[in-house]
Amino acid sequence: MNKSTLKYIGKRLLISCATLLVISVVLFLMVRFLPGSPINNEKLSDAQRAIIEAKYGLDKPLIVQYVNYFKNMLTGDFGVSMNLYKDMPVSSLVGDAAKISFAYGICAVIIGSVIGILLGVFAALHRNTIWDTLATVISVIGVSIPSFVFALFILIFFAADLQLIPTMYDESQVVYSSIMPVLALSVGVIANVARFTRTEMISVLNSEYITLAKAKGLDGKTVIFKHALRNALIPVITILGPILVNLMTGTMVVEKICSVPGLGKLLINSIQASDYNVILACSFLYAVMYIFMMLIIDVSYGIIDPRIRLGKDD
Amino acid sequence: MKKVISIILSMIMVFTLTGCGKSSSNEKTFTYASELDIKNLDSSDADDGMSFMAMHACIDGLMSADKNGKAIYAIARKHTVSADGLTHTFKLRDAKWSNGDEVTANDFVYAWRRIFKNNGNYAYMFSSDAASITGADELVKKQEDKEKITDKDLKTLGVKAIDKKTLEVKTTRYISYFDELMAFPCYYPINEKFCKEQGSQYGKSPKNILSNGAFVMKTWNPGSKAVYEKNKDYWNAKNIKLDKLVFNLVVEPKVAATNYDSGKVDYATINSELVDKYKGKKDYRTFKEGYLFYLSINFKNQYLANSNIRKALSYAINREDFCDNVLKDGSFAAKGFIPSGLTTDDKGNDFRASSPTYTGYDMTKAQQYFDAGLKELGVNNITLSLTYGTDESPMDQMATYLQNAFTKLNGLKIDMVATTKQDRIYNKQKNGDYDIALTRWGPDYSDPTTYLNLLLENNSNNYGKYSSTEYNNKMDEVKTLTDNTQRWKAMQDAEKICMDDYAVIPVFEKGTATLLNPKKQGIIQRPVVVTTFNYIQVKK
């Protein structure tokens, strides 16, 4: 890695940190200006409300509140829940929820990519046949219908009627009870990956080096799997990062339907309860994920092809 | 291809078989699907129904409730009241905490003082607003004056451990509903040694809480599930028929109903959209929550100060139609300021059932009263605002319905003021910046005064500034009477005064529609009483 690449990475890191700082300020202000309050028991007297507000530091000026919050955040302390799970540390609440959402996101991406790639290759190889049309129809359905509709379908049909899988998340049968949400989440991935793979595969199959490989007398399998697919997959891999982040942020409704105690469900519940610290931690984590993924993509592009480097680079 | 198909088929078979194994329900388990989560298990801090239910499953207070919601002994085995009605002596039974410690009188003393020490929400339940325990008003005053409450101050609270098994409570006046009060979670005991060991983590997880009740909490995964097992050392263990109690937490009503249909849960709360599907089935049932939804009237508004205008508004509301065709969740028309099922007299008569009905729907009368009101005011038309919180379901439905109903009165224009619950109460109502506000009140204890006190001139919740000397005098009489029959009559008279004045306009009593496994009956859900699972019987 040469000096210019290191400098580029350093610059991107700095930009990411600055972005996160701005996001934290904006999030903090937005959350504070949300209608409602975490202290919403109508039977509390003014004095009791004041005591509770002082306990959580809500009586201090906004700037002081932010500075305190930011200082604690740097040490990994995201404060305590003010309403949803009274006085429980937010870091452990968000940490537990994030683990589940991450695991689901990664599983859905793996399952979705494998099936999507197979479907895409299959469609490309049978281009302009009924199989290609069928695969395209499946992809379009997968892209157009939101994952929570699939979740509802799986819940009603496979879980409730046929009773093949559990109807809700159960920590005593984690793998088994994760089938429904993971399947629902992977449908979108399958569709996206299949469409992308098909297009890439067709373009690769039409390229001259494939014609050369065939002319050299290589058998069909080798041509497809060793030459065509490997080249077609490079661009596919680049879309998996954003898909993963999208999945994690888009799991909210699926988590609600499948009763999964994930990050999305925690965020929705915390917004409903106006639980400032929990909302902040969840939203900030999403922001970190996005920025981190963008950073990885930018940096890897920059390393692979220095011409892509964003911004002015000496 | 054949290979792939055979792998898929065998996977489906494995899942199916596993499914059969796992889904076979244990008959002695009761699974409750809740839309809400458990917030907290600390009895000196928790203030929501789900947390109360979760605590009550594993903690007994001095008293508990029987199948009809009447107070019965729990940790107390005997309760005597001195001749002047001011000293309550509770003899405690031999009961154990789940760490093997005895439940002692000091556990109550510690827990009650802790509420003041930690500035808990329910300090007012000890004051003259409710239990009237000596010293409580002074401690609440200190709290309000932001003075530090010292250990010496805490000792002034009228609760004392005479010995390990005798608790003495002193009150400033005779409280006829003291037994019922003692079943409320803020009066639960806390094991001092254990609580101090847990520090700030007390009540935050199953390992940070002790049980002396019917069940022991084994796991609690926030947002997902809480599992309890029968407490074999419970003093009444022989009468507990369930082996296991499971709360599925934060489950959407539709998902809960689907789970109920598939036999995965025994109890589910459903919303009005689902009621038509289940109404009439043996699984369907409704219960009264005890919440009264009513209109707070601002008496400082020149138009609303006119009694004919208030009367007209009350007559313009078709409460039955709203409950039966809009809410459809078991809610029903309110007939007065005291909701039904709150309390009964010595003969078992419900307060509401034995009192007159003060509401009714009659548009002709409504218009007549309204016209009379306008004439008295010397105007042809008036505009009133309707303030409600959009974050308080079903206030939005109620507001829309009322707007429609009120604007049917010729000469009345309604301005909708949609805001948040916090803004409605603490900005709009508290500062008198409203005309009519949609509000609700849940009872703190099973006595009509939990509602009637709200309209006292000096009550901090009397936002509308209703003021009636006759009413205040009657309520003073209620406070001093020790004869239950006379007191009952005085409370009925007090309700009549405020209802004849249209001090507030009751709209409906909130109900909840649920699905319950017919083979697992016995869940007790009543206003004020914390939901209990202790009486559930499992039929084959």
Number of strands of chain A: 0
Biggest contact: A-B, 52 and 50 residues
Structural class per helix/strand content of chain A?
Answer: mainly alpha
Gyration radius over CA of chain A:
24 Å
SSE topology string of chain A: HHHHHHHHHHHHH
User: Which topology of the largest domain in chain B does CATH recognise?
Assistant: Dipeptide-binding Protein, domain 3
Q: Give the helix proportion of chain B (percent range).
A: 25-40%
Structural class of chain B: alpha+beta
- Strand count, sense and closure of the main sheet of chain A? none
Unreliable stretches covering 5 or more consecutive residues of chain A: none
Rg of chain B to the nearest angstrom?
Answer: 26 Å
The CATH architecture of the largest domain in chain B can be given as Roll
Q: Please, how many domains of chain B?
A: 2
Shape of chain B: globular
Tally of DSSP β-strands of chain B: 19
Question: What is the first-to-last residue Cα distance of chain B?
Answer: 48 Å
The portion of residues forming beta strands of chain B comes to 15-25%
Number of helices of chain B: 17
Global outline of chain A: flat
Helix content of chain A: over 70%
Instruction: Tell me the number of helical segments of chain A per DSSP (H or I, 4 or more residues long).
Output: 13
